[in-house]
Amino acid sequence: MPEQGSGHFTVADGRSKAVGHGELVTYSVEVEAGLPISPEALTRVVDKVVGDARGWTGVSGHSFQRVAMNPDFRIRLATPRMTDALCSPLETAGRLSCRNGEYVVLNGWRWENGATSYNGQITDYRRYMINHEFGHALGFGHRTCPHPGAPAPVMLQQTKGLDGCLANPWPAITSG
C-alpha cells in the first residue's frame, strides 16, 4: 500500500437500489488512483455493508443509496498522505480514518493492514471502518465500552483499542 498516491479519485459508476426506511441519504464510492483496489471492488464491499440489516439501515431511521453524482457523502479510500489532507485539521498520523464534511475517508493503510483489536479479521475490520466513519456522517459521536466482555459499540474507536469490549463491526449488535 503506497503512502502517497496521485490525489485523483475515480468515482464508481451507477447507483444502487435504496435500502432501509426513512430519510434518504446518498453516498458515492471513490478510490484514489494508484491504490490496489478498483472502485468496483470497493463498491461491492461498501454496498454490502451499508445494505446489511446489522448496519445503519437497521438502527438509524434512514434509507441509503449509492449514486455517482451529487451525493450527500463521499466515501473515499485514500492513501495515508491523502487521508491526512482530507481529514485536516484532524490528526490521523497517516494511520487513522475520519469523517470530515462531505468526506468519509477510509485510510488505505488500515484497509490493507487492519488493527490489532481485530486480530487479523480483516473483513470484519473493514466492515467496522465503513460503519464507524459512516456513523459519524450520520451524526453519531464516539462511545465507550459499556462493560468488559460486551460487544463494542461501533462508535467506539476500536482501531485504538477495545477497552475491555469485544470487537464488533455492526451498529445493530449491542449488549442490550
Could you name the key traits of this structure?
4 helices; 24% helix
Strand content: 15-25%
CATH topology: Collagenase (Catalytic Domain)
Going by helix content, strand content and strand pairing, the class is alpha/beta
Q: What is the CATH C-level name?
A: Alpha Beta
Mean of residue pLDDT values: 96
User: Can you count the beta strands?
Assistant: 7
User: What's the total helix number?
Assistant: 4
CATH architecture descriptor text: 3-Layer(aba) Sandwich
Q: What is the terminal separation in angstroms?
A: 38 Å
Query: pLDDT under 50 segments (min length 5)?
Result: none
How much is the radius of gyration in Å?
Answer: 15 Å
Shape: globular
The sequence of SSEs as H and E is EEEHEEHEEHH
Helical content stands at 10-25%
Quick one: biggest sheet? 7 strands, mixed
Q: Number of folding domains?
A: 1
